[in-house]
Amino acid sequence: MRLLGWRNRILGSARFQRHAAENPLLRPIARRRAGALFDLVAGFTYSQVLLCTVESGCVQRLGEGPADADELARLAGLSPDATLRLLRAAAAIGIVEHVAGDWWMLGRHGAALHGNAGALAMIRHHTLLYADLADPLALLRADRARPTALSHFWSYAGRAAEADPQRAGAYSQLMSASQAPVAQEVLAAYDLSRHASLLDVGGGQGTFLEAVGAAHPALRLGLFDLPEVTARLEAGRVAVHPGSFFEDALPRGYDCISLVRILHDHDDGPALEILRNIRAALEPGGTLLIAEPMADTPGAEAMGDAYFGFYLWAMGQGRPRTAKEIRSMLRDAGFVRSRRIAARQPIITSLMVAVA
Ligand SMILES: C[S@@+](CC[C@H](N)C(=O)[O-])C[C@H]1O[C@@H](n2cnc3c(N)ncnc32)[C@H](O)[C@@H]1O
């Protein structure tokens, strides 16, 4: 602690900052640190620029090829001045690129985003999060006791959770749109062919199981979710089990159960209840596969505690957990062993395998 205090006094001193800026060896580091700090200060503005490029249709249009500023202005319903302000801002953060004259193309980030339906859906969805974060200190002070835009959207969240097919449809669609990269990560990291059957708990619209089924045609598949969600599913290869993991026993007879982006949605008590329910449904030796973004993930720390920490607080329940915290809960739920397995893109998901 004393060492950190000393470091912070040095970094905060105007004399040291002047010295770092003047010293040719320290200057590149000083510039990088100043840039990173500026990005923290300005991050909300960058996100709003990004939102404008998506909501106006510019990203989608430029995904089809170059366009001139007049066409983009018509599409966005903006004056020439406002369009130019937006395009230059978007170019500065890598969403678009100025090519020549009045012509624009996608930039590096824009090109990656254009084909990513899940990211585009999340950018639009974030308008709810930003509404809840308009006064972030008030949100913290409310201690999750007040309804929020996000608790309304996730109808199973918050104190007055009640069945609402329309809201369940909206969140299920968002989850389905952002599921493909998660399924890819899971399939690349864990070989499901060692199992005969898989039950996806909180499986939503079945998008994860669709990807699993395509990769493992012999696997018997089941999906468990709230009745208002499973009512939207069509009959097919997947056995559908409506119910609540807080009120109903999970179906038995599956040798593997998956929990994809579920556990972090729940506070510790309810999360432990879900794990105990799963443990009771598995025979000894059965497997639980947990896939979700985790806190304290090396290289993706901000995604865990800063993004998901605040997102889930605004939603009214849940928290991102470290792998160590999840392993400790698994032990408490009666699993005999667990291990984290490496994912290629931990910013999308981390993975944990537990044995009953
Ligand atoms: C964040 S979504 C994740 C959906 C899906 N696993 C995915 O990754 O796309 C959480 C899911 O848990 C389901 N869920 C919430 N509370 C539940 C409960 N008490 N019992 C069963 N499912 C529940 C929701 O309906 C929703 O489909």
Automatic annotation (TrEMBL):
<keyword id="KW-0808">Transferase</keyword>
<dbReference type="InterPro" id="IPR036388">
    <property type="entry name" value="WH-like_DNA-bd_sf"/>
</dbReference>
<keyword id="KW-0949">S-adenosyl-L-methionine</keyword>
<dbReference type="InterPro" id="IPR012967">
    <property type="entry name" value="COMT_dimerisation"/>
</dbReference>
<dbReference type="GO" id="GO:0032259">
    <property type="term" value="P:methylation"/>
</dbReference>
<dbReference type="InterPro" id="IPR001077">
    <property type="entry name" value="COMT_C"/>
</dbReference>
<dbReference type="Pfam" id="PF08100">
    <property type="entry name" value="Dimerisation"/>
</dbReference>
<dbReference type="InterPro" id="IPR036390">
    <property type="entry name" value="WH_DNA-bd_sf"/>
</dbReference>
<keyword id="KW-0489">Methyltransferase</keyword>
<protein>
    <submittedName>
        <fullName>Methyltransferase domain-containing protein</fullName>
    </submittedName>
</protein>
<dbReference type="Pfam" id="PF00891">
    <property type="entry name" value="Methyltransf_2"/>
</dbReference>
<dbReference type="InterPro" id="IPR016461">
    <property type="entry name" value="COMT-like"/>
</dbReference>
<dbReference type="InterPro" id="IPR029063">
    <property type="entry name" value="SAM-dependent_MTases_sf"/>
</dbReference>
<dbReference type="GO" id="GO:0008168">
    <property type="term" value="F:methyltransferase activity"/>
</dbReference>
<feature type="domain" description="O-methyltransferase C-terminal">
    <location>
        <begin position="131"/>
        <end position="335"/>
    </location>
</feature>
<feature type="domain" description="O-methyltransferase dimerisation">
    <location>
        <begin position="39"/>
        <end position="97"/>
    </location>
</feature>
